[in-house]
């Protein structure tokens, strides 16, 4: 990660010139540098050789052709042929030297970007749409590779070739050479102007492409909703707006390119025309031979394509600059959730999870708003199962996400077996605490791999390990009531996820649960893991989970009384704080808010009836108490009176 | 094996017939894309032909200048011919440059028009394809069709076509000018064409296969990438990062390898072109030089010949570039045309029946539904839901409840029999009326990027803010929405971002309330709600459903209380049918379930 850290310290892109901005990829390109230099040398050799051919032609025209000596033709043509073959060989060499190392740079950058993205906290991913990330990982890096192995090499070599060519031209005739040089100046000037115009528009085009990709993604991921409401047309209109925007930008970009093309075609041709005039004048004055004039035009022709290519290569360079900027937009992101420098480790893992005044607020939360989690104090003893109950939006999911540092606390701390979780490596922490999310994500892989995700040690061919893995898998599937797996086409080896079979919400949830169980953690954090299950299955899962939770510390977000029943104690989350902890029946008896949150519709009626009955009882009691107090007060009164009497006395 | 639609897309061993079939369908697509812009294409062609002719005139003018202008000046001091020639040259340069710039802008307009047409077509077609297709084809692939594949086509249109057209024309005009100037040199060029064509053919055959491999490799890469980014929580929680890095590294490597192979082909093709060009120049020089010596060729013409022969091969490298983008675009077009060839298994009716005022009477008539011959979900299903009735569907996972719901919402069509709304077969009902009358809310509550209000308004795009808020209030979502940073204008960001699953469901409920359908289908729509929210939703439902037809699938039996009628399903059949009170009082499956559920409550 050293590259990311060094680059994070580098200045922001707006301050950098195009060259320095692109130079930031040096750490990735470093191993390829000798190859690229080699390629440039080969390319330069090809350029020089192509410039030598006109010199041979000049000798031929002014020698054998003027003398009418056919014998001299053979060696000159043979030389032209040899030079031609060498030029082709050099071009081949350039390609072979540069292109494979170029693909390695691309691969390195892609892996680097991916590693960085995996490392960045969830909060980052909440902000960034995956379409934007994808366009960085694919098309931007593609462009960078092509630029390095093609654009960069040709840009530099063509400029050198042009310079050498101009020297050769000066050699034929100072006046003609100067003419060619002077008429080339507008191209460089315009190229500079072009940079400013083009790089802005190129970046906007790339961003708009990313937005369009996001629109596509949403339309595909949200297809069910769009279909259910018949909003295909509506989303098409939105998409069409985005696409129209892209079209407008692309045409603006094309106009910029057309502008540079105009000069690139006009200037060499105009230079040829003027050279023709000058050449004829010089030849008429006998200051130039016909052979030299021919060589001049032959050389200028050789230079034509390098000169024309400059515009295209510049455009590519500026595109690449914005691609590099976009790459570093991600790479420069400072990771706020990292491993400590000197990680501690849990000496005697037992599964004691303690929240001490744990706080969390979103960075962009308004200043006057209280913290989302406003000082959580909660202790889970080893082996204890705690249910977490609260209304929607009370912060239950956030609280669970804090335990494995998907988000970091913004105040207070969380201790696992006495160690602040921020002092553990993320690897150790997430090994000890496993989670099942309500929104169950499966990856494109076999069911087996998905369930055994938390047990990387099972990836082995050793029969003993495989047998153990099979046992754990079977047990986890059994607990999660995921027997349906065995009915899939390839059993537990069936591929699921994006590229495989699609499973129902309930099936996915059970696999996610099996995954958490199979990880055999010290602490199991379950975020409403049974919401998509039917009543029968839920009951079976709960019964099986109880066995697991007997020995494992559990933190379970619960919406239903039945889920709460699995817990030893219940913590009530209210307004960002734990307001009450106790057993289900204790809370039911003493906490009004708890009853509001957990008792379901009919239960509510029951409770209402109970309350009424109790109220009645209370009312009766109260009246009895009243009578009693009335009696007592009379006694007191009497006493008081007596005391008064005493005082009086 | 079939190659119709997207079938066999990942194969790279097509038979001749299959290849031809695929090529034909992508050519058809291409033709249909070009047709609307053909007028503009013709204009652009004329402009580019004119422009190229002017650009090619250069060497001939040089020859003219040396052979006619120079003697006139040297011998007679007559500057007129050379002045005319140079004047013509400058004029040709100016007009040639202006027209090529014009052509650039024109061709950008054309290609953008084609692209936007294709983008919209694929987008709309994707939206029209049935859920069944989406479930089997997967979102990653459909996304890469619409992003990276369209990108390759864009690249082809952007630069590739320009290069081809101007390159081919340039070569053609150059050859023409050469033959006019000196026919024998034309023979040298013709001889050079033979190895040129052979080399190109060799390249074409070899590269086609490899380009297809790169597309497959990039699609895999994209799927993996998107899956990781959308599932980042699970990735982190289960320490999948190192394994992901390995897997992704493998994808990157095979993509790199595929790319490197293609590039290596170019490493032979491109220098090959240069070699042929240079040998041709030497050939033309040899023959021309001898003719200059024996006086049958003027020296100025020899110069022009050499310039033309060299220029002829000038665009060759760009043509190779064209081939690069052409190959990936062709592969992309093949896949896109495959997707477009998929006919929606739930097609819009050709002669739709309007139903302005739906009453909500839903009927299943001898409906059979099967994914294929082996998995029959509903063997033979009859059901009559009178208008205004609220039905609760109960049964274990896989009993066919969701299928039933999807058939009413017309996400699927029955394999046999028919589903009707107010006596009209859903397949004949106008889609607009169908979607207005029937709305389904699923457990997976997807939020689109945009504000909370936008997301609710999806139920009724022209809704006012008051209506949006009223809908949110009705389902009890108003509270939490107003507590968000910007209230209703809060951007929900990527995939719901910081809105919890329960809150997402409330938003999607509000969406359905706003849509105000005649028939409402709730498929596990309250699963993620907490009890107070569920209570609110249920109260709202009781008012909302009073005069509506509703089908509710819920695992929680609490929902059943508000139903007029309960259907217990098993293996695609109804095993119990009656009012909640009747069934609870009975001794059937439902009575058992209900008893168990009561037990679990306290």
Automatic annotation (TrEMBL), chain A:
<feature type="transmembrane region" description="Helical">
    <location>
        <begin position="260"/>
        <end position="282"/>
    </location>
</feature>
<dbReference type="GO" id="GO:0016887">
    <property type="term" value="F:ATP hydrolysis activity"/>
</dbReference>
<dbReference type="GO" id="GO:0005524">
    <property type="term" value="F:ATP binding"/>
</dbReference>
<feature type="transmembrane region" description="Helical">
    <location>
        <begin position="73"/>
        <end position="93"/>
    </location>
</feature>
<feature type="transmembrane region" description="Helical">
    <location>
        <begin position="294"/>
        <end position="318"/>
    </location>
</feature>
<dbReference type="Pfam" id="PF00005">
    <property type="entry name" value="ABC_tran"/>
</dbReference>
<feature type="transmembrane region" description="Helical">
    <location>
        <begin position="32"/>
        <end position="53"/>
    </location>
</feature>
<keyword id="KW-1003">Cell membrane</keyword>
<dbReference type="InterPro" id="IPR039421">
    <property type="entry name" value="Type_1_exporter"/>
</dbReference>
<dbReference type="InterPro" id="IPR017871">
    <property type="entry name" value="ABC_transporter-like_CS"/>
</dbReference>
<dbReference type="InterPro" id="IPR036640">
    <property type="entry name" value="ABC1_TM_sf"/>
</dbReference>
<keyword id="KW-1133">Transmembrane helix</keyword>
<feature type="domain" description="ABC transporter">
    <location>
        <begin position="353"/>
        <end position="600"/>
    </location>
</feature>
<feature type="domain" description="ABC transmembrane type-1">
    <location>
        <begin position="37"/>
        <end position="316"/>
    </location>
</feature>
<feature type="region of interest" description="Disordered">
    <location>
        <begin position="621"/>
        <end position="649"/>
    </location>
</feature>
<dbReference type="InterPro" id="IPR003593">
    <property type="entry name" value="AAA+_ATPase"/>
</dbReference>
<keyword id="KW-0813">Transport</keyword>
<keyword id="KW-0067">ATP-binding</keyword>
<keyword id="KW-0547">Nucleotide-binding</keyword>
<dbReference type="InterPro" id="IPR027417">
    <property type="entry name" value="P-loop_NTPase"/>
</dbReference>
<dbReference type="GO" id="GO:0005886">
    <property type="term" value="C:plasma membrane"/>
</dbReference>
<feature type="transmembrane region" description="Helical">
    <location>
        <begin position="147"/>
        <end position="168"/>
    </location>
</feature>
TrEMBL record, chain B:
<dbReference type="GO" id="GO:0034040">
    <property type="term" value="F:ATPase-coupled lipid transmembrane transporter activity"/>
</dbReference>
<keyword id="KW-0472">Membrane</keyword>
<dbReference type="InterPro" id="IPR003593">
    <property type="entry name" value="AAA+_ATPase"/>
</dbReference>
<keyword id="KW-0813">Transport</keyword>
<feature type="transmembrane region" description="Helical">
    <location>
        <begin position="187"/>
        <end position="203"/>
    </location>
</feature>
<dbReference type="GO" id="GO:0140359">
    <property type="term" value="F:ABC-type transporter activity"/>
</dbReference>
<dbReference type="GO" id="GO:0016887">
    <property type="term" value="F:ATP hydrolysis activity"/>
</dbReference>
<protein>
    <submittedName>
        <fullName>ATP-binding cassette subfamily B protein</fullName>
    </submittedName>
</protein>
<dbReference type="InterPro" id="IPR036640">
    <property type="entry name" value="ABC1_TM_sf"/>
</dbReference>
<feature type="domain" description="ABC transporter">
    <location>
        <begin position="362"/>
        <end position="596"/>
    </location>
</feature>
<keyword id="KW-0812">Transmembrane</keyword>
<feature type="domain" description="ABC transmembrane type-1">
    <location>
        <begin position="42"/>
        <end position="328"/>
    </location>
</feature>
<dbReference type="InterPro" id="IPR003439">
    <property type="entry name" value="ABC_transporter-like_ATP-bd"/>
</dbReference>
<dbReference type="InterPro" id="IPR039421">
    <property type="entry name" value="Type_1_exporter"/>
</dbReference>
<feature type="transmembrane region" description="Helical">
    <location>
        <begin position="82"/>
        <end position="103"/>
    </location>
</feature>
<dbReference type="InterPro" id="IPR011527">
    <property type="entry name" value="ABC1_TM_dom"/>
</dbReference>
<keyword id="KW-0067">ATP-binding</keyword>
<dbReference type="Pfam" id="PF00005">
    <property type="entry name" value="ABC_tran"/>
</dbReference>
<comment type="similarity">
    <text>Belongs to the ABC transporter superfamily. Lipid exporter (TC 3.A.1.106) family.</text>
</comment>
<dbReference type="InterPro" id="IPR027417">
    <property type="entry name" value="P-loop_NTPase"/>
</dbReference>
<keyword id="KW-0547">Nucleotide-binding</keyword>
<dbReference type="GO" id="GO:0005886">
    <property type="term" value="C:plasma membrane"/>
</dbReference>
């Amino acid at each position: 990660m050293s590259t990311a850290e060094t680059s994070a310290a580098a200045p922001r892109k707006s301050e950098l010139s195009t060259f320095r901005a692109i130079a930031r990829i040096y750490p990735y390109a470093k191993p390829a540098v000798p190859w690229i230099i080699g390629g440039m040398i080969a390319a330069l050799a090809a350029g020089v050789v192509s410039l030598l051919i006109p010199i041979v032609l000049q000798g031929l025209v002014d020698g054998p052709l003027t003398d009418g000596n056919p014998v001299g033709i053979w060696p000159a043509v043979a030389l032209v042929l040899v030079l031609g073959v060498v030029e082709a060989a050099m071009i081949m060499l350039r390609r072979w030297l540069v292109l494979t190392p170029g693909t390695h740079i691309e691969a390195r950058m892609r892996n680097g970007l991916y590693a960085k993205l995996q490392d960045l906290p969830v909060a980052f991913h909440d902000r960034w749409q995956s379409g934007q990330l994808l366009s960085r990982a694919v098309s931007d890096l593609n462009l960078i590779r092509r630029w390095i192995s093609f654009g960069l090499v040709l840009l530099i070599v063509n400029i050198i070739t042009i310079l050498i060519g101009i020297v050769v031209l000066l050699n034929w005739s100072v006046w003609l050479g100067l003419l060619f040089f002077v008429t080339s100046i507008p191209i460089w000037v315009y190229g500079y102007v072009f940079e400013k115009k083009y790089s802005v528009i190129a970046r906007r085009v790339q961003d708009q492409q990313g937005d369009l990709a996001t629109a596509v993604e949403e339309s595909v991921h949200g297809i069910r909703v769009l279909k259910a409401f018949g909003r295909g047309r509506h989303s098409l209109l939105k998409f069409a707006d985005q696409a129209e925007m892209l079209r407008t930008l692309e045409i603006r970009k094309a106009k910029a390119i057309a502008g540079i093309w105009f000069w690139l075609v006009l200037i060499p041709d105009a230079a040829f025309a003027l050279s023709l005039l000058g050449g004829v004048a010089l030849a008429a004055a006998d200051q130039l031979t016909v052979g030299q004039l021919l060589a001049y035009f032959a050389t200028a022709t050789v230079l034509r394509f390098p000169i024309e290519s400059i515009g295209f290569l510049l455009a590519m360079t500026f595109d690449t600059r914005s691609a590099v900027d976009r790459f570093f937009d991600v790479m420069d992101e400072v990771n706020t959730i990292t491993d400590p420098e000197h990680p501690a480790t849990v000496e005697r893992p037992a599964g004691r999870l303690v929240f001490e005044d744990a706080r969390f607020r979103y960075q962009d939360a308004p200043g006057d708003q209280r913290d989302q989690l406003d000082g959580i104090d909660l202790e889970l003893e080893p082996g204890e199962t705690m249910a977490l109950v609260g209304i929607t939006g009370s912060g239950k999911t956030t609280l669970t996400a804090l335990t494995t540092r998907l988000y970091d606390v913004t105040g207070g701390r969380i201790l696992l077996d006495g160690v602040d979780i921020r002092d553990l490596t993320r690897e150790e922490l997430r090994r000890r605490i496993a989670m099942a999310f309500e929104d169950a994500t499966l990856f494109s892989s076999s069911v087996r791999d998905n369930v055994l995700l938390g047990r990387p040690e099972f990836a082995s061919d050793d029969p003993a390990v495989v047998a153990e893995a099979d046992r754990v898998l079977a047990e986890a599937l059994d607990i999660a009531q995921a027997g349906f797996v065995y009915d899939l086409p390839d059993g537990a080896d069936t591929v699921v996820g994006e590229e495989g079979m699609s499973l129902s919400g309930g099936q996915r949830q059970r696999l996610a649960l099996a995954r958490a169980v199979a990880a055999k953690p010290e602490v199991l954090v379950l975020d409403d893991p049974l919401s998509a299950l039917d009543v029968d299955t839920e009951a079976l899962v709960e019964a099986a989970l109880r066995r697991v939770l007997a020995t494992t510390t559990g933190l379970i977000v619960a919406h239903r009384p039945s889920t709460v029943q699995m817990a030893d104690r219940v913590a009530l989350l209210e307004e960002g704080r734990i307001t009450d902890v106790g057993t289900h029946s204790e809370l039911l008896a003493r906490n009004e808010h708890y009853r509001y949150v957990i008792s379901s519709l009919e239960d509510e009626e029951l409770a209402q009836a109970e309350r009424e009955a109790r109220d009645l009882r209370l009312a009766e009691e109260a009246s009895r108490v009243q009578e009693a107090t009335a009696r007592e007060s009379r006694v007191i009164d009497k006493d008081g009176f007596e005391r008064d009497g005493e005082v009086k006395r | 094996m079939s190659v119709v639609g997207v079938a066999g897309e990942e194969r790279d061993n097509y038979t001749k017939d299959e290849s031809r079939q695929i090529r034909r369908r992508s050519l058809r697509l291409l033709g249909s894309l070009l047709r609307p812009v053909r007028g503009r294409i013709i204009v652009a062609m004329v402009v580019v032909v004119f422009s190229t002719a002017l650009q090619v005139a250069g060497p001939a003018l040089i020859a003219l200048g040396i052979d006619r202008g120079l003697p006139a000046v040297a011998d007679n001091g007559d500057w007129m011919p050379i002045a005319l020639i140079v004047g013509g040259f400058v004029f040709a340069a100016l007009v040639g440059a202006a027209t090529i710039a014009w052509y650039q802008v024109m061709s950008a307009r054309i290609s953008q028009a084609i692209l936007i047409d294709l983008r919209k077509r694929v987008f709309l077609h994707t939206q029209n394809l049935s859920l069944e297709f989406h479930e089997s084809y997967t979102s990653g692939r459909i996304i890469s069709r619409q992003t990276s594949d369209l990108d390759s086509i864009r690249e082809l249109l952007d630069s590739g076509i320009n290069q081809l057209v101007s390159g081919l024309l340039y070569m053609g005009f150059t050859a023409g000018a050469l033959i006019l100037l000196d026919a024998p040199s034309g023979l040298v060029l013709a001889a050079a064409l033979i190895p040129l064509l052979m080399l190109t053919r060799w390249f074409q055959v070899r590269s086609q296969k490899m380009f297809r491999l790169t597309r497959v490799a990039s699609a895999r890469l994209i799927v993996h990438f998107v899956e990781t980014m959308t599932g980042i929580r699970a990735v982190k929680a289960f320490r999948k990062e190192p394994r992901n890095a390995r897997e992704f590294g493998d994808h990157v490597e095979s993509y790199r390898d595929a790319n490197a192979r293609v590039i290596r082909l170019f490493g032979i093709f491109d220098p090959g072109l240069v070699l042929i060009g240079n040998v041709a120049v030497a050939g033309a020089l040899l023959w021309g030089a001898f003719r200059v010596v024996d006086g049958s060729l003027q020296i100025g013409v020899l110069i022009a010949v050499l310039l033309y022969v060299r220029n002829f091969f000038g665009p060759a490298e760009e043509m190779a570039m064209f081939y690069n983008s052409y190959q990936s675009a062709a592969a992309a077009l093949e896949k896109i045309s495959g997707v477009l060839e998929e006919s929606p298994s739930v097609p819009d009716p050709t002669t739709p029946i309007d139903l302005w005022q739906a009453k909500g009477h839903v009927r299943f008539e001898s409906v059979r539904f099967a994914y294929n011959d082996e998995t029959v979900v509903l063997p033979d299903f009859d059901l009559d839901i009178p208008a205004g009735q609220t039905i609760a569907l109960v049964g274990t996972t896989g009993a066919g409840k969701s299928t039933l719901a999807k058939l009413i919402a017309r996400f699927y069509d029955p394999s046999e029999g028919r589903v009707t709304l107010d006596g009209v077969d859903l397949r004949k009902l106008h889609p607009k009326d169908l979607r207005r009358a029937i709305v389904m809310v699923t457990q997976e509550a997807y939020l689109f990027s945009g504000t909370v209000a936008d997301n609710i308004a999806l139920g009724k795009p022209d809704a006012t803010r008051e209506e949006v808020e009223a809908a949110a209030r009705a389902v009890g979502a108003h509270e939490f929405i107003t507590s968000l940073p910007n209230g209703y204008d809060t951007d929900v960001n990527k995939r719901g971002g910081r809105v919890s699953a329960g809150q997402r469901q409330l938003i999607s409920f509000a969406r359905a309330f706003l849509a105000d359908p005649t028939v409402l289908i709730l498929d596990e729509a309250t699963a993620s709600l907490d009890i107070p929210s569920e209570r609110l939703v249920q109260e709202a439902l009781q008012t909302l459903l009073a005069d509506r037809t509703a089908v509710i699938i819920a695992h929680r039996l609490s929902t059943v209380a508000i139903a007029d009628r309960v259907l217990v399903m098993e293996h695609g059949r109804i095993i119990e049918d009656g009012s909640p009170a009747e069934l609870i009082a009975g001794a059937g499956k439902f009575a058992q379930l209900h008893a168990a559920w009561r037990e679990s409550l306290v």
